[in-house]
Amino acid sequence: MYRKKSLKISFIFLLTFVFITYILPVPIFAFGPSSDEIYQGIDVSTYQGNIDYEKVKKSGIEIVYIKSSEGSNFVDPLFERNYEKAKQNNLKVGFYHYVTARTEEQAKKQAEFFVSTLSGKIADCRLAMDFESFGNLTKQEINKIGLAFLKRVEELSKKEVVLYSNASTASNIWNGEITNYPLWIAQYEVEAPENSGTWNSWVGWQYTDVGEIEGIDAYVDRDKYTKEIFLSDTSELPKPEPTEEPTKPEEPENPSEPEEPNKPEQPENPTKTKTIKIKKGDTLSCLARKYGTTVEELVKLNNIKNPNLIYAGANLIIPDNEADNNNEQTPSICHDCGHIIYTVQKGDSLWNIARKNNTTIANLVRLNRIKNPNLIYPKQMIRMR
User: Per CATH, which fold does 273-319 belong to?
Assistant: First the structure.
């Protein structure tokens, strides 16, 4: 009797073991940081406005990732200020680029633009790729484009890189060679990010997009980073070689009688103009939008042969529209990011921006993660939708 009961118990135990081991789904194991020491961080762009980095530092933040650029010619308006102020307050700095490429060739060009934008800067952290809007691209195309961007950045910058991705994309899209790069994962309202199935650990975890930090008057992304986020070489980022040589002026036939340089053609009814200096990352389309003119007008005023080729440090003649300040600023579509953008003017309030553009303060606050609706800044870029 005892023997039969013992055999019955053993049989039940065996069945239970087989059921748990082979029939129930395999449990998802913990997906943790790549090392034990954790650094507190944030990532920022123009949507956070003018940041008081002294207060940010005092609040315990150690690392700040700064948006530098997007697409093939858009530089974040507060990129330079964010970099300078973060460095002045001894914060560790990283940079990220928002990729909009739809081909591998476009990805390489955007990588070149990213590295060019960072020329002369000191980065402490890996250069990050933020590629999360895929349109109609296939999974294979997405992986090829992402890989092309990261490899080109490595090649030009001689620095290590990191892939930023939300948890869903990390699990369902990224695969193959690109998963050899470390992961900065985004997942909110969880105790720990989900195992992606392709990475064993993370070097960065963006755990909320509604963080509140002293010195920032808008919501801000909060992050945790490991020591593997840091660069092994923090020397100055190099200046990449230009992909196209500037056109040299033709030599005059008689060197003893040098010709005058070509002057821009003036219209029959001269427009009041002024001269600005082109900065790194500027394009004619962005400058035209910024100064309320057109690419065609800038080409005509400056006798430009190739509108896609302008150089940092060169002078550019633009229409002087300051005398006509009664013209209302209107939103424009940024062809690089696809967003409808309004640039805040002196005297603007969120209320009058919402009223003039047939939207609501609540909608603008949500789109731009604005913490204090009563506090916006001139030249701040506001997404309308």
Answer: Membrane-bound Lytic Murein Transglycosylase D; Chain A (3.10.350)
